[in-house]
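Customer escalation, tier 2.

The customer says the design service returned an amino acid string that "doesn't look like it belongs to this structure." They asked us to rerun it and document both sides in this ticket. The original structure tokens are below, unchanged.
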């Protein structure tokens, strides 16, 4: 035995693959497979050993053909578990130049949702970040791009087979077993290869820019594919026009997979999705579900260029793939469906990145990555949403045209190859003539983000902004160690003076700055220091500016909804950070309760919901709920539960109604509203159960109505919901009933709701979200937490992949009290999860802060309630 190559071993660049020709025979009865592959490689020098990645594969034969040599070079193989490699050892050296490696192996399906795994009656692959090696011995790092020609053998009759390429040739033997060869792909990294076999059927193909587009689902769900077809065919030409390059992979298949770890995976030409991110029933899908599906489809399509055609060199630039696709998806969907106002949803998602990134356990967007396991750890809101927000901020600063020119230059220059983030900044800098490398790296490589304090004074007769920046921490006791971080902040400031509304761009890089509002005439009516909320920073206005802003919100349309949302988010963050009193925050909420924009309302109600759930003392909950009911009751009554005339309403009206009723039913628990919600939910269930075309309940109200019904569920209703959680075809509806089970409050069914987590009722993909709902529910919380501890081995096995384990750890963050924190700390110390180190420290830090916050806010809320 040789010593291990170690966990951080990277394949040397001395053997480069150019083409794979692989054959795989998948045994769907026994969850196993056998394969052979020929890999054309180029050796930089003569070599007696070649390393490839492989995990859990039993390689039974290995050899190399060298041009001009009649006999193959036979190789002995050595497996190294730690580096996940198999090394071919040749008795005589292979010469420099071309060679073809031949390997034969067998393996079994992987237990987690990765490698080749079983999802119901489908066998499907999930390879990112580094699980291609669980199916093929290969050069499993993104820099090793090669063409792939895949053939499936022994495919039983009636079984659908899909891969990156279209079917090039199909033959069958006497028994009907088929041999299916797919067209050779353009050069691709191994993590983008995909195979799916099983019971899948497709919509009629539609063509967009000459690309045939199909959406695949299990047969019963074929009727739910139309929206995905519409979205893909609408956004594909828009992406082509943005990049200035045609779609690179010939055909596009979108597959809805019944059990799937992530949201979706951008495999070239063969994109796999969690069903709820692809399939929907337009008659019952809330607007939020439609938007989410369109956004995910567009995100994966954007990767076909950014990621698949031009690929990162190493996992340390994985963030760029994800940041770019995140930003691009919103941009393209906003163009396709402007009435959706999808940037408001981006603002919500950005909010979670701002929270995560304000912790001491935060990490830079771009991190040093030693190995694939670490790459897997970096898929969090900082990677996706902060990364996307930084790109948006740079675009906002450069302007759309110059930014797009830079992207096009980067794509043209690196198509078919690999590139780093600095290549992108270089191209953007070249196209714009601006210092983008410096600007971008300051945001990408530093942890956290700034709090910008803003005050207004007069200097030399001109209104002058006084700005100050420091790193923002949620924890009031946290401080920077070492030299304070300074960001180069591209700010867009908007204000109103005697002449009207004006904007000024400011590039702010020092600790403090005095910025003259050069174009101002007369007196300043208000200042918005993050116009359009495009910047990834928080603002803290001094008293007079905050009052002016409040005045402007109340009396004019000068402050845009997205800015009002950001203001609420920032003010709440300041309360958390100990820089504001919750009473003043609640006064702000009260002043804004008449808000007409549904997204801003959601922001306000979301904070109240959090306070009600976590920070109000048990004895004062009823009083708090009453206040919430009073704040929104009359607006809700004006809108009612449906359009008065039955006429169609604007999306914003429907969403406003949903936000207001959520406040009344879910947060305030207003008895009348709860009873109405429950009765409408039951009527809806009966009407859809009987096959009625449409229910009288607006789809946007379904979540809150079903929740109300679940809270009051007895045994019979629990059984009914459990049955629907298995039989509903529409994935969003299925998930709604599944989560409803975790929201029960009546004692007789609490135990059943908790126990259900460990049964087949909750599939692996929904396991951690189900636990998270149980842990957020006061009625089920303690029992669920006990189950996790008592049956840890089973719980761990049901979240058997790094991503699921991370979500499992994160779900514990729903436990609100200090004693929970102490229990979780002790438990995770005794049961550490090395693959979720980052999630563990993030979750514990968040719990520590939340426990302290709870202790601080309870008396403040009490005092506020006393005079509310
Ligand atoms: Zn992505």
């Amino acid at each position: 035995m040789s010593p291990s190559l170690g966990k951080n071993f990277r394949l040397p660049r001395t053997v480069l693959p150019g083409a794979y020709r692989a054959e795989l025979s998948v045994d769907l009865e026994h969850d196993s497979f056998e394969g052979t592959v020929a890999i054309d490689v180029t050796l930089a020098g003569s070599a007696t050993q070649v390393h490839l990645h492989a995990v859990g594969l039993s390689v039974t034969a290995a050899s190399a053909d060298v041009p001009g040599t009649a006999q193959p070079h036979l190789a002995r193989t050595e497996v190294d578990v730690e580096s996940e490699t198999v090394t071919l050892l040749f008795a005589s050296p292979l010469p420099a130049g071309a060679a073809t490696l031949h390997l034969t192996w067998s393996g079994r399906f992987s237990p987690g949702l990765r490698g080749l795994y079983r999802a119901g009656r489908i066998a499907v692959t999930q390879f990112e970040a580094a699980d291609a090696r669980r199916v093929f011995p290969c050069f499993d790092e993104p820099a090793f791009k090669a063409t792939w020609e895949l053939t499936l053998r022994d495919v039983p009759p009636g079984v659908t087979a899909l891969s990156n390429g279209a079917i090039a040739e199909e033959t069958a033997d006497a028994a009907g077993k088929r041999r299916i060869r797919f067209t050779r792909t353009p050069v691709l990294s191994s993590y983008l290869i995909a195979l799916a076999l099983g019971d899948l059927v497709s919509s009629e193909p539609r063509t967009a820019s000459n690309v045939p587009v199909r959406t695949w689902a299990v047969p019963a769900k074929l009727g739910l594919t139309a929206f995905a077809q519409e979205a893909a065919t609408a956004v594909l030409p828009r992406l082509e026009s943005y990049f200035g390059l045609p779609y690179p992979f010939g055909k596009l298949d979108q597959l809805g997979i019944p059990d799937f770890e992530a949201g979706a995976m951008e495999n070239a030409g063969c994109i796999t999705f969690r069903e709820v991110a692809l399939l929907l029933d337009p008659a019952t899908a809330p607007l939020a579900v439609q938007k989410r599906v369109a956004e995910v489809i567009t995100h994966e399509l954007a990767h076909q260029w950014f990621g698949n055609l031009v690929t990162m060199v190493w996992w340390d630039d994985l963030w760029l793939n994800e940041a770019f696709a995140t930003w691009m998806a919103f941009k393209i969907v906003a163009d396709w469906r402007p009435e959706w106002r999808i940037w408001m949803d981006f603002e919500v998602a950005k909010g979670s990145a701002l929270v995560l990134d304000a912790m001491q356990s935060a990490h830079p967007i771009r991190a040093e990555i030693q190995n694939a396991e670490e790459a897997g750890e970096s898929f969090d809101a900082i990677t996706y949403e902060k990364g996307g927000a930084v790109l948006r901020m740079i675009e906002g600063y450069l302007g759309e045209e110059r930014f797009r020119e830079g992207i096009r230059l980067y794509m043209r220059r690196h198509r078919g190859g690999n590139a780093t983030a600095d290549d992108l900044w270089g191209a953007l800098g070249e196209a714009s003539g601006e210092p983008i490398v410096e600007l971008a790296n300051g945001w990408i490589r530093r942890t956290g983000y700034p709090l910008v304090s803003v005050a207004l004074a007069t200097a030399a007769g001109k209104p002058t902004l006084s700005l100050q920046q420091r790193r923002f921490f949620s924890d009031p006791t946290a401080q920077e160690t070492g030299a304070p971080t300074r960001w180069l902040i591209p700010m867009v400031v908007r204000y109103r003076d005697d002449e009207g509304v004006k904007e000024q761009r400011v590039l702010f890089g020092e600790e403090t700055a005095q910025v003259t509002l050069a174009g101002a005439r007369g007196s300043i009516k208000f200042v918005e220091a993050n116009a359009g909320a495009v910047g990834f920073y928080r603002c803290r206005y001094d008293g007079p500016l905050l009052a002016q802003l409040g005045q402007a919100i109340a009396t004019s349309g000068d402050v845009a909804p997205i800015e009002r949302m950001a203001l609420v988010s920032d003010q709440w963050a300041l309360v958390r950070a100990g820089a504001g009193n919750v009473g003043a925050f609640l006064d702000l909420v009260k002043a804004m309760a008449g808000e007409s924009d549904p997204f801003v309302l959601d922001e306000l109600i979301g904070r109240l919901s959090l306070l009600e759930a976590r920070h109000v003392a048990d004895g004062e909950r009823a009083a708090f709920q009453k206040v919430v009911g009073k704040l929104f009751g009359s607006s809700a009554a004006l809108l009612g539960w449906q359009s008065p005339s039955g006429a169609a309403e604007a999306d914003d009206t429907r969403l406003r109604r949903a936000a207001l009723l959520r406040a009344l039913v879910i947060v305030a628990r207003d008895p009348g509203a709860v009873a109405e919600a429950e009765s409408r939910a039951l009527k809806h269930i009966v009407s859809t159960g009987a096959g009625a075309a449409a229910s009288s309940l607006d789809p946007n109200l379904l979540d809150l109505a079903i929740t109300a019904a679940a809270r009051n569920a007895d045994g019979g209703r629990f059984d009914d919901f459990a049955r629907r959680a298995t039989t509903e075809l529409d994935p969003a509806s299925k998930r709604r009933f599944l989560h409803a089970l975790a929201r029960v409050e009546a004692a007789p069914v609490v135990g059943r709701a908790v126990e259900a987590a460990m049964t087949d009722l909750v599939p692996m993909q929904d396991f951690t979200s189900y636990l998270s709902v149980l842990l957020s529910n006061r009625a089920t919380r303690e029992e669920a937490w006990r189950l996790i501890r008592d049956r840890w081995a089973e719980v761990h096995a049901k979240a058997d992949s790094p991503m699921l384990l991370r979500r499992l750890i994160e779900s514990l963050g729903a436990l609100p009290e200090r004693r929970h924190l102490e229990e979780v700390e002790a438990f995770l110390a005794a049961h550490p999860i090395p693959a979720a180190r980052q999630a563990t420290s993030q979750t514990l830090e968040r719990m520590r802060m939340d426990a302290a916050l709870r202790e601080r806010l309870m008396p403040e809320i009490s005092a506020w309630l006393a005079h509310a």
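Tier 2 assessment: The sequence is consistent with the input. The mean pLDDT is 95. The radius of gyration is 28 Å. Sent an explanation to the customer and offered a walkthrough call.
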